UniProtKB/TrEMBL annotation, chain A:
GO biological process: maturation of LSU-rRNA from tricistronic rRNA transcript (SSU-rRNA, 5.8S rRNA, LSU-rRNA); ribosomal large subunit assembly
Residue ranges with Basic residues bias: 290-301
Location relative to the cell: Nucleus, Nucleolus
Provenance organism: Naematelia encephala
Domain Brix: 30-240
Biased composition range(s): Basic and acidic residues: 252-286
InterPro entries hit by this protein: Brix (IPR007109), Rpf2 (IPR039770)
Stated name of the protein: Ribosome production factor 2 homolog
Molecular function GO labels: rRNA binding
Family membership: Belongs to the RPF2 family.
Domain of life according to the entry: Eukaryota
Transmembrane segment boundaries: none
Keywords from the named record: Nucleus
Region entry Disordered, spans: 250-311
UniProtKB/TrEMBL annotation, chain B:
Function per UniProt: Involved in ribosomal large subunit assembly.
Record's compositionally biased regions (Basic and acidic residues): 93-111, 123-149, 169-183, 226-243
Chief place where the protein resides: nucleus
Subcellular location(s) per record: Nucleus
Name listed for the protein in its UniProt record: Ribosome biogenesis regulatory protein
UniProt xrefs under InterPro entries: Ribosom_reg (IPR007023)
Amino acid sequence: MSMLRTIKPKNARVKRALEKREPQAVENEKTAIFVRGQSTSEKVRKAMQDLYALKRPHAINFSRKNDIHPFEDASSLEFFASKNDSSLFVTGLHSKKRPHDLVFTRIFDGRILDMVEMGIEEIRTISEFESPKSSLGARPLMVFHSDLFDTHPTYQQIKSTLLDFYNGHPVSDIPLNAVEHVISITAGPISDTAPLPRVHLRVYTVKLLASGSHAPRTQLTEMGPSIDFSIRRIQTADEEMMRQALRRPKLAKSDVEKGLGKKRKNIETDEMGDRVGRIHLGKQDLSKMQGRKMKGLKVRKEKPVSAGEEE
Amino acid sequence: MDVSQELADYAAKHTTQVLERSQPVQVDMGLLAAFDNTPIDPSEYSSDLDAHLLQLTLTSTQALISALFALPTTPSAEHGPVIRPPVPSTILPREKPLPKPKEPTKWERFAQAKGISHKKRDKKEWDEERQEWVARWGRDGKNKQKEEEWATPVKAGMEADQDPAATARAERKARTAKNEKQHRSNLAQAAASSSASSRRTAQQARAADLERSMLVSKSATASMGKFDKSIEGEPKSRGVKRKFDENVPKAGWKGEKEGLLGVLKSVESGLGRKEKRKGETKEGEVVVRKAVRYHDREERLKAGRGGAGGGRGRGGARGRGRK
């Protein structure tokens, strides 16, 4: 925080832009930054490219390498977060000790909240699947399988992180036919050989078929990416910080119903419960308005009204 | 050409068969998410992973879609039926803390204390002479009326070369500057109080608490902590100042006299004297506590004289005390 100088707005546009960055009761969607470490592998690059494609348009891709090791020193992530007003990070790394490494980081109030480090074991990219793809900015469904996501603290954190990543922002209105794809996260069964079983990420496109009843039948086609993760280091959130982060604003029920507390200008509900809007129309140009056409109202240029008519 | 195998593969890939679950799939419609908390079957998982994952996803997605389609819809011209999902049941961390309420200004605090209610001032003011509403300030503002007067009556005591328009303008500018200054101080105070409260975490609060209690306990010795050994990284006590009485008291000498008489009185009545411990001092008995302390002191003195470096630390400390 201290690295950034405080900007004093010089005009209204800058002031509005700065106000948007201030804490809000109803927040905007979190932006994710995809940043590569000093050395990365083919697998890491592929995975980051596809995870970025899924997160777009709320994602920023850093094209250059950065000397980042989130678990050792996260100050540069905090700097990037404050500079870009974003709070999610995917850092791609590759080393002998931890090959094909992805670190998911969450930021709260400009400081690191928690981190999950996962290794890429298997990957098939979006382009490897010959299937229809979801459109840009389409909202995915997200499904989690396994009891570990309910009971195991590490997997609870993974679930929270991934859910926050792709579906963390509640939306007020969803068209039913806008459902295009589903992100499926599954943890393997726990065993003696695998105390921390792998996490499988799959993405399918959804096709809804008529079923005779109200709810349609679902058909899934794999769209990619398909990534198998192994679990590595975990940094849990500071208790006090998490408590602050989980606080909810008190919103009036009518505001929530109107659209999650976002203030909408010029729309009101009157005493009868009808929605009344106020719109601004510019000043009407009356000079060009065509009035009633009559012979007597015609402007005669050649023969102006003269005294002779009075006779 | 036999395509039955391919057909079977296709059917397996595009299956719409839903699995039986022991626990119903939990649905969070607000986040468009579903959670299947049934444990994964190890045999199915290891035999054919991708097919099993597809089956699982299909099951939970079907549950989620069914729940979403059960919601009431509103028609829209562009997008077809639109649903409004309920508030999410899964609580995810926020990006930034909750917005803080605006810090009240000095005037607002004063008004609150005095119970003065806010009065909204109109932007326009009624001009009696012109018989119309005029702006209070700004362009053609009423506050510039004195400066724009074409003639000003000279009052008694006014200097001959005084420019009334310039004086009025200077006064107006001074009012603006004063308001600006107050505004800035209000902003500064709001910034200071908000940053102080947000940056101070629970840990920092605890550390400050410990420091305070340590300072208190250190100064609770007979010498007010003057001769105590200092610890590395020990906090400095701030804000503790000695107080002296005034040489010439403003309130007069009566207070000093009374104070001194009070001291004498307390000595006379034995008010400050230590109470003797009960049960220790009967006539003719040895006071064990004092005897032990006396004996200890003798021993220590002997050791200090005789030993080479053993007693130096203690001796040094006492030496400082005598200076």
